[in-house]
Queue: 2 jobs
Job 1
Amino acid sequence: MNKTRVTELLGIEVPVIQAGMAGGVTTPELIAAVSEAGGFGTLGAGYMEPEAMKESIREVKKQTSSPFGVNLFVPEEDKSTDNDTEEAMEALHPFHEELEMKDAVRPESPSVFYEQVEGALAETVPVVSFTFGVPPEDVVTSLKQAGITLIGTATTVEEALLNEEAGMDAVVVQGSEAGGHRGTFNGRFDKAAIGLMSLLPQVADHISIPIIAAGGIMDKRGMDAASALGAEGIQLGTAFVTVKESGAEAVHKGAILKATEADTVVTSVFSGKPARGLDNRFIQEMEGRKTLGYPLQNSLTKPIRKEAERQQNTEFMSLWSGQSPRLAQDVSAAEVIRNLIGPWG
Amino acid sequence: MNKTRVTELLGIEVPVIQAGMAGGVTTPELIAAVSEAGGFGTLGAGYMEPEAMKESIREVKKQTSSPFGVNLFVPEEDKSTDNDTEEAMEALHPFHEELEMKDAVRPESPSVFYEQVEGALAETVPVVSFTFGVPPEDVVTSLKQAGITLIGTATTVEEALLNEEAGMDAVVVQGSEAGGHRGTFNGRFDKAAIGLMSLLPQVADHISIPIIAAGGIMDKRGMDAASALGAEGIQLGTAFVTVKESGAEAVHKGAILKATEADTVVTSVFSGKPARGLDNRFIQEMEGRKTLGYPLQNSLTKPIRKEAERQQNTEFMSLWSGQSPRLAQDVSAAEVIRNLIGPWG
C-alpha cells in the first residue's frame, strides 16, 4: 500500500489516517504532526462546542499547511423518559460517593451537529468524516458544494453500502478490534462486531468507493494485511493515543502501554454507546445498572471521569483502547508513520 | 505464503488446514479430498466414541496416503450440581414440546479423551491437534514418543505461550472471526474474542513455534493477510463446511450460503461452551435460561438438534459459521484449495 485512491483523494503522501478520537486526544499538535509526516490528522470534534472546534481548526492551520480533517458524530433521537434519567442518575451515586463528589445534575445535551457543520464550512476544512451514521442529505449537499471531501464509517457491508449511496467519497471500515466507540448505526452492536479479516474482503466485494481499514492496525504488518484484504488506506487510533503529541492523560497512555490484547471490553456505561476500552472497576460495577443513551449518559458520567482524572484514578476513567495495546509505543507521531512506511516507503 | 515451517512440519504442499470440526462435518471424504489436494485434512473427533474415531481414521487411510490429523477436546472438570442439571433440563422443556419430543433424560458424559488418545496411537495418525486446553504432560509425552506431531489452539498471547511451553509443535491462533467453538481455556471468553488483525502480530512477537491463523479466512486475500501478520499456515472451517464432501446438513450449508457477516453470534446454549454460529430462535429463546457446562449441555441439547435436523428446522439446529459467510461457496474441497493457492501456487 503506497499510492492509492486514498492518498489521491486526501492529497497525502501515505494512506495513514489518525482517527478522529473525541475527548481531547486529538490536540492540534497531534493533528499537525501526523499531517506534516505525510499522513492525515483528524480533529475528533464529536464532543466539541462549535466555537472550540473552530478555534482548534485555526490552531491546526497555524501549525501545518498539509490537509487534515474534522470528525463529527451524526446525532440520533433521544427516546429516554424522565424516569430513565432518574434511575441512571441514581446508578452513579456510589461512584460520586467514592470519589467524594456532589451527585449528578440532570444531563442536558442539545445536539451541536448542525453548528459543527457550519463551523467546518466557515473554516474551510478540506475533509469531514462522520461516525454513528450517514449524515442527512442537506449536510452532504452543502459540504460537497463547498468542495469538502466526505468520509463515512461502517461496521458491516450494509452500512458501507449506505455510506456509498449517501455520497461518501470513502468509507472507514471499522473492525471489532477497534478501540473507542463502535460506529454501528444499522443493526445490533454485538452482531456488527466483525473482525477485519472477515469484514474487509466482504465489504470490498460490495462497494466501489475506497476503503480505509480501522481496528487493531499498529504497524507495517497490519498495513500490509489491510492492503491484501482490499483496503486502500488505514486509520489508526490507539497507535496515536500513546504518542508524545497526543492529549490523552498520562495515566491513560501508561495503562495502554502496560496492557495486553485480552484486557479490553466493549461497554456502553461511559457514553451510552458501545465502545472498546480497558476493563476497570467502573465498567464492572456498572454492569446491570441503568444507563441512558448517547449523549445523555456521556454528560452524566463526565464529572466522574474528570474527577477520576484529577485524582489520577484509572478505575473510573474511560481508557479507550483497541485490541493491540502490546504494539503501542511511547514515540512521536512521525515515528509511528515512519514505522508504517517501512524502508520501501 | 507457500513453503513454510507448517508445510514442512506436516509434510504438505500448501499450508492450508481443514479445521477439525466436530459433529459430523469432517467426513473421511472431506479429509481425504483436502489432503489429496495438497492441504491438510483433520478429523473432528471431539465428540466421537473411540471405536468410531478409529473406524473413521481407517476409512481416511483407504482414501488417501497423504498426511492428515485428528482433533481432540481436552476435558475439564464438571462442577455442576444435581440442582443445576434439573434446572437446565427444565429450561429445554418448551423446545421439546414444540418439536413434539419426549423430555430430556439426565445427561451423562464420561470423558473419552484418554481412550481417544489411545486410539490415535493405535492407528498411528501423523498429527493430533487439541482444542479447549493444553493436553496433560503424560499425553504429550506418549504421543511425542510415537513420533506424532502436536498442534494446540490459542486465543490469546498467554494461551499461545502455554501451548509452546507444553511442547506443541505449532499452534492454531484462533481469532474472534472464527466459527464454531471458541478455543479459550485461560481467561474470560469475551476478553479473549480478539480479531486476527490484532491477535496474530501480538502472538508472533511472543512465540517461536509456527502460527496457523484461524478465523474468517476463506480465500487468497485472507491467506496473504495472515502471512503479512506473521502466520505460516491457515486453518479454514466455514470454507469447508459448505463444500460438496462436507458432512454438514444441506440446510446448514444453505443457511451459510445465504448469510451475511452480521448474522452470527457467540452462544453457549448448544454445547455449554461459547461457539459462533448463525443466530436463530433456539439461541434467542434460551437467553437467560439455565445451561450446564460442556459436555453436559451438549448431551442435553443433542436430541433437540437431531430432531430439528430430521424436521429440517434450522431454528433449533447449531448452525456454526464464522464471520465470512458471504465468501462461502458451493464447490469441491479441491476448488477451495485451488482458489487459495492462486495462479502463482
Job 2
Amino acid sequence: MSSMLNFSVSAAVEGTEAPPIPRAQAWGVEYLENPSYGELLGLSQGVPGTAPHESVLKALSAVSADPLSAKYGPILGETALREAYAEEIRVQYQLSPSCKGKGGVTGQDIGITTGCNMAFLTLIMALCPAGKSSVLIPLPSYFNQMMVFSLQSVKPIFVPCDTTNAFKPSLASAREYLSSPDRQKEEMKPKMICLVSPNNPTGSVYTHEEIKEWYDLAKEFKVALILDETYRDFVEDSNGDRGIPHRLFEEEDWRETLISLGSFSKGYRIPGHRLGSIIAGPALLKHLTTICDCMQICAPRPPQIALSTLLPSLRPDLTASSKALSKRRHLFEDVVNSVEGWNVASIGGYFAYVSYPSDYSFASSTLGLKRKNLTSEDIAKILATKVGVVTLPGSFFMPPTSDDEAWENDVLKGGEILREDKWLRFAVANVGDDVILKLGPRLKEMNKLMGLGE
Amino acid sequence: MSSMLNFSVSAAVEGTEAPPIPRAQAWGVEYLENPSYGELLGLSQGVPGTAPHESVLKALSAVSADPLSAKYGPILGETALREAYAEEIRVQYQLSPSCKGKGGVTGQDIGITTGCNMAFLTLIMALCPAGKSSVLIPLPSYFNQMMVFSLQSVKPIFVPCDTTNAFKPSLASAREYLSSPDRQKEEMKPKMICLVSPNNPTGSVYTHEEIKEWYDLAKEFKVALILDETYRDFVEDSNGDRGIPHRLFEEEDWRETLISLGSFSKGYRIPGHRLGSIIAGPALLKHLTTICDCMQICAPRPPQIALSTLLPSLRPDLTASSKALSKRRHLFEDVVNSVEGWNVASIGGYFAYVSYPSDYSFASSTLGLKRKNLTSEDIAKILATKVGVVTLPGSFFMPPTSDDEAWENDVLKGGEILREDKWLRFAVANVGDDVILKLGPRLKEMNKLMGLGE
C-alpha cells in the first residue's frame, strides 16, 4: 500500500513498467539545454511526420460542426466506415471484390476501435484469462504489448528473433515449444501467437510465405494468430511501390484462426483522432462487442464519419507516403551504414533496428564512468544528451527482468545473442530527409566521443 | 470452443451478458411496424436530447481543421483541459480557488479518458486483481459496470437499495459486511465501494451527508470509494438550481480514499466525441497513466483542445440544461404518478425508477400468455412493442443469475424486496416535454391492455 493511498493498488499494475517514451524524451530536453551540434534530431517515436491530407482536415472540420457526430454511434463502428475500410483492405490485399466463397473481407469482418492499442488490449481480454494464460511473441517486443501482458497477468513466452537474418522470429523454436508434451493440455497451451509486421521495434517485414508458416502453425495447434498490421500501408514491393502484406485473407477459413489489427493513425496521419481496427470473423467480433461496449461504447465518431466517404480518394496519398518513406529508409541505410561501426540490422515500415560499434559497451573509462559494460539505455542516453539524437534503446523492447533464471524461463532457445543488448530503435517516419542527412555527422561525433577511431 | 473458431475465447467473456440496450431498441423497431398509438416514445437510453452548444460545435470544427489536433497528446490529457476542468470542479463544488491546504482540486488531480466507461474499467484494472477481488456496489447496478466485473473476473457484492426510501443503498448492511471477522484479512476485503450519484439506473441522488457516511466507511476500512458522477451537472438544489453534489473535495486527505469519475458526454452533450474524466490524487494517477497508455495512448485530441478554452463560458448553458431537466423531471412525476397503479419510486439526473401496477405481473391470462408471474422484461417488452414506449426493465440492472443460492451469496441482507422485479427505468433527458405529455395516455392504454380498471 502506497503511503499516499489508503487502499491498495493491484500488484500487476504496481509491477508494470511506466511508459518508456517520456524517459527518452527527457534526454532530448537535457540536450536542448546545451545543444552542441545544432537542432535535436528526434528519432524516438513512431509518429507521422506530416499533416493529414488536406481533404481529411476539411472533412473532419465539416463533420465536427454537425451535431449528429456528437451523438453515440454503433459499438463496433459506423457501418459506412466498416464497409469502406473492407473495400480498402480488398484493394490493398488484391482480393476479389465479390468475396466469393468464405475468403475475402467484408464490412461484417471489421471492428473499429479507439486506436490499435485498444484493439490489442481488447483481444488480450477476449482470449487470455488473467493469471492463467500465456502467449507466444517474438523478442524484441513492442513495449505497450508487454505492458498489457503485465497488467492483465498474461505470461509472454518470447520467440527469439534471428539477429543475423533481419530479426525474423524462429518458427522452429515456436514449433518445438508447442509440440512439447507439457503443452498438450488446453490450459498449458499459449492462447495466441502475436506477430507485428512491419515490425515494431525492429522494422522487420515478414513475407507472405513467412506469415503463412506462422498461420499454419497456429492452425495446427489451434491457437489464434494475432497479426498487428499497424504499419501495413508501408509494405513495399520490389519496385518500391505499396506491396501486398500477405495473402492470408484468401484462405477460405482465415476467420477461424487469424485476427488482424490495424490503425488509421499512420497511413492517414491522424493519431490524435484515435482510430484503429480489428479484422476478424463475426463469431469473434460478437464477443469483442461486449468488451468494446465496456471500454469505448463507440470509437470517436467524427473521424469515422469523415473517413467513411474519403478512403478511396486517399489511395494516391497512401502510395505517395509509402514511396517517400521507402526513399527515406534507403537514405537512412546509406547514411548509417557508412559510419564506422554502425550497422542497420533490419529496417521496414516506420523503424530501423541498428547496432552501434561494439567498443561502445566498453567506453566507460573514456567517459569517466565507473560502471563497465554499458547497456543500450546508457548508449541511447549519451547519444541523446551529448549529440542530440533521440532514439529508443533496445532494452526498452526486452523483458523487464533478464536475470539468467528469468531468461531461461521466458525466452525460447536460440536467443542468447539478444542479451548482448547492443541495438537502438530509430523511428524514420516522423522526420524529413534533411534530418536523416544530419544524422551521419552526429553519429561520427558520437564515435569520437566514445573514443572510437582516434 | 465455438464451432466457428479454431481457438478458445475466455470463459469470463463467454459468460458476460451482451450489451442490453440493442435488445430494448429492437422492441421499438417491432412497434414501428405497427404503430397503433402514434410515434415511438424512446425513453430507454441515457443520452442528451439536444445538440451541443453552438460555440462547442464551432470550436470542434475549427480545431479539427488544425493539423496539430491530429497528433498524439499527453496520456492523461491536455494540460490546458486538466487545468480548466479543475477550475470547473472548484466552481461547481464551491472550493476555494487557491486550494490551500491539501483539500481542493487542481489540474494535477485530473485525468482525461476516452469516456467514463473507460475511466471505470481503468480503475477496476488498477485496483482489482482478476479472479481475486470483490467490490461493494448498490443493487440495482448499472449494467456496464456489472459487465466490467464479469469480464475482469471481479466479484460484485451487492448492497441492497431501500425501495421505500428513494433507492438509497443500505450503509448498515455494508458496514456489517466489512466488519465481519472473515473480512479482516487483506485478501478477503472488498477493494472498493462504488457509488453512482445521481444514480444510473434509479435516478437516486445521494446527499452530501449520505456520501460522507460512505466516505467515512471506506476510510475506516481502508478501501477506495469510487464515485461515478457522470450526471453531476444535473444535481439540483432546493431552488431547482444546479446544486453542489457533495463536499468531499474539502477533506484535507480526500486523495487517499476518493476517486471521482465524470463525463463530458452529458453536461456538454458530446458523447460521440468520447471524453471522460478521473479525479484522483497524483499517487494513483501515476498508475492510471500506465494503464491508459496501453488502452487509449491519449483521449481524442480535438474535443480536448476545443473545450479547454470554452468551459467557463458554458456555465450558463449547463445551468439552463440542468433547470430544463429539473422541470422535465417534475412533469414526468406528475404525469406518471397520475396514472392508476404507476409510481415514481426515485428520480434524479437523467433517470427515473418507476413501478408499474402490481396486477401486471399476473396479467398472463389477459394476454393469452402461458407463463405466469411476468418479469419486468416481459412488461418492458409489451410496453414497447404494443404501446410504443421504450424503457429498460429493472431486470437489466440485476445480477445475471438470481436463483436463491446465488442471491444469498451475492446480495447483502435486506434486499429481498428487490426480487419482486417490478420496476422500469425511464430515461427522461433525451426527449422534450411534449413526449413526456404523450406518456400519460400511453400508460393508460397499457393499463387497459393489461386488463386493469376495466
